[in-house]
Amino acid sequence: MGLKLNTPTPLEKNSFRGINFLLKRDDLIHKELSGNKARKAKYFLDNPPKNINSITSYGSIQSNAMFSLSYLAKELGLKFYYYANHIPSLLKDNPHGNLELALKNGMILKEGYANIKKDSSTLYIKEGVAVPEAYYGLKELALELIEQLGTTKKYQIFLSSGTGATALFLTKALKELKASNLKVFTTPCVGKKEYLLKQFKELEENSSFYPTIIDTKKRYHFGKLYREFYQIWLELQNESKVEFELLYDPKGWISILENREKFSNLVYIHQGGIIGNESMLQRYRYKYGELNENN
Ligand SMILES: *Cc1c(COP(=O)(O)O)cnc(C)c1O
User: Fold this and answer.
1) With a 6 A CB cut-off, is 165 part of the ligand 1 pocket?
2) Ligand 1 centre and the CA of 180: distance in Å?
3) Is the dihedral of CA 248, 263, 184, 206 positive or negative?
4) Is 248 in the pocket of ligand 1 (CB under 6 A)?
5) 35 Cβ below 6 A of ligand 1
6) How far apart are CA 186 and CA 216, in angstroms?
7) Rounded Cα distance, 224 and 284, in Å
8) How many helices (H) and strands (E) does the chain have?
9) How confident is the model at residue 295 (pLDDT cuts 50, 70, 90)?
10) Who contacts 22 (Cβ-Cβ below 8 Å, separation ≥6)?
11) Contacts of residue 110, Cβ cutoff 8 Å, sequence gap at least 6
12) Is the CB of residue 164 below 6 angstroms from any atom belonging to ligand 1?
């Protein structure tokens, strides 16, 4: 069956700019159902929704979640309706990246959140798969980490946040599993710290289940291009020999480097999403040309 996940994912030794770390290869969890989207959607894989004929979701026009859900729907034999608030005409005429691939999976793209249709025939999934069911798959990730890292040595686990659902539910699961040696850190990539806390609160009232939030000195806007993002992404690839994701990982690594003293035993979670790199790279190359890791 095409939906079998490759778990447990490997935990590999690596290093970057003098920081030795362990890399949790959730990017290898599945070829199409990527990284944390696979973890968040695992509940629906194990408990295929009954009596519905479609999945409905919404969000940005190039999102990793959109592509992952298009694949999930295809595999479950369901239609997939996806709403973007605005579809740039350039993309309408010439879809590429996640959008092109999602359309190939049969996604039905609609414009305008005001037009979203919810009824009992569709499984409605919030933007970024930030749903309570996501806890189920993140508990499996927590169990894998406990198995691989043990219960005595202290580790600092880092993962970047969009909706924050992955970091939140991983923290909660580790706490409920009493893995007090494993502490979770995250950084907001969409909006500021206050926005991320608000997102946590929508999914979980109890703030003792929240991860520790660290941030960068500079404020970065989601989806915008920054030379230092491109640069660190190239450098990461060159030094670690692993391809990282271009929207979330650069901010993650910059925040780690600026808060180095907190990470004596870093575990970095690679949350997948590299299918979306192609369209980001096109934009980066157009704006900055071909950089190499030294300039
Ligand atoms: C979707 C995604 C995130 C954000 O995950 P949230 O659960 O929404 O915080 C982070 N990194 C990558 C690579 C992603 O694809």
Assistant:
1) yes
2) 24
3) negative
4) yes
5) yes
6) 11
7) 10
8) 10, 10
9) low
10) 11, 12, 13, 14, 149, 155, 266, 267, 268
11) 81, 82, 83, 84, 116
12) yes
Q: Reply yes or no on whether the pLDDT at 216 is more than 60.
A: yes
Is the confidence at residue 1, as pLDDT, over 50?
no
Tally Cβ neighbours within 10 Å of residue 11.
Answer: 16
Closest CA to 61 of 285, 276, 271: 276
- Å from CA of 162 to ligand 1 middle: 5
Report which secondary-structure segment, H or E, holds 36.
helix 35-46
Q: Whole-number mean pLDDT of the chain? A: 95
Q: How far apart are CA 146 and CA 151, in angstroms?
A: 6
Q: What's the average model confidence in pLDDT over 233-253?
A: 97
Domains and CATH numbers, the chain: 11-31+132-288 (3.40.50.1100), 39-129 (3.40.50.1100)
- With vertex at residue 132, the alpha carbon angle to CA 130 and CA 134, rounded to the nearest 5 degrees, is 65
35 CA to centre of ligand 1 in angstroms: 8
Residue 277 falls in which region: left (phi positive, over 0), alpha (psi -120 to 50) or beta: alpha
Distance from the alpha carbon of residue 271 to the mean position of ligand 1, in angstroms = 7
Residue 224's pLDDT is 96
Ligand 1 center from residue 40 Cα (angstroms): 10
Give pLDDT tens digits for 61-111: 999 999 999 999 999 999 999 999 999 998 989 999 999 999 999 999 999
**Is the CB of 188 inside a 6 Å radius of any atom of ligand 1?**
no
Distance CA 188, CA 247 (A): 12
